[in-house]
Design brief:
It contains 11 helices and 8 strands. By secondary structure, the chain is of the alpha/beta class. The chain has an 8-stranded parallel β-sheet.
């Protein structure tokens, strides 16, 4: 069966280990890998992963173009394995967002990744809404969603943004709410412009809960993801295999849904 990992963080080699360490410190979780691209590619290919959706997060305004150029270069050198999403920063003006979206589309990048908790903005705050207005549905947005420690990316704010921009395709990462799954599902299920990846979730919930949440959101709207460098591809596939799903459902989640979502 094909495998498309829809949630992978990548970093330049010279900062990869430090960046991975910072992620671990932010979440209080030991990282499974060093964050280097070669480490991921080697391990993921051994487990049959054919494609990865890759991205990174800008924590300052001046990182945006550098990171997006890096994502583009990484996609170009991946021999077709990588699909790239760009980064933006909440301090950007609407004109700056518009210009960067046009630039990344010209480069062949396929969407935007935003991390409200790291970038310190609420998904539904006024300026964030202006950013989505500037994106204007031209590319999908992948949001980190949920974290009981913060209010930035809570499911209610995700729902408000999705309702305000019904033509904007959005992905709510971590089954809609990292560490707040039970709250997220009733809030976010049924939104016609929202899809969900299950990265950084299966280690914390039971296979029975995972199936319940998948069916609540809809089997056609779930993407498999590892959140590299956080989790091992082997461990995540084993956790996924414990969920009582049909072969058709597995095929959809492992690769078909994300492929159709991206129009590939």
């Amino acid at each position: 069966m094909h495998i498309f990992d829809a949630h992978v963080h990548i970093y330049p080699d010279k900062i990869a280990e430090k960046a991975s360490q910072h992620v671990g410190e932010f979440y209080g979780i030991p990282m499974s890998f060093d964050g280097k691209i070669a480490t991921m590619v080697d391990n993921w290919k051994k487990r049959g992963v054919e494609r990865c959706l890759v991205h990174s997060v800008a924590t300052t305004h001046d990182q945006v173009t550098k990171i997006n150029d890096f994502i583009k270069a990484s996609v170009d050198s991946s021999e077709g394995m990588f699909v790239g999403f760009c980064t933006l920063h909440p301090s950007m003006s609407q004109d700056e967002v518009d210009a960067e979206i046009r630039r990344i589309m010209d480069m062949g990048l396929r969407g935007v990744k935003l991390h409200p908790d790291c970038q310190k903005f609420r998904i539904d705050d006024k300026h964030a809404m202006e950013i989505y207005e500037a994106i204007d549905g031209r590319v999908p947005i992948l949001f980190h969603t949920g974290d009981k420690r913060y209010d930035y990316s809570n499911p209610d704010s995700m729902k408000a943004a999705a309702k305000r921009f019904p033509k904007q395709k959005m992905i709510a990462a971590h089954l809609g709410g990292y560490t707040v799954w039970e709250k997220a599902v009733p809030v976010l299920a049924g939104l016609e412009n929202v899809w969900y990846d299950e990265s950084s979730s299966l280690a914390y919930i039971t296979p029975e809960q995972a199936k319940e949440y998948i069916l609540a959101y809809g089997e056609d709207r779930i993407f498999f993801g590892t959140d590299y460098p956080m989790w091992s591809i082997s461990d995540e596939l084993e956790r996924f295999d414990r969920i009582d799903l049909t072969d058709t459902q597995r095929e959809k989640i492992l690769w078909k849904n994300i492929t159709e979502f991206l129009g590939m």
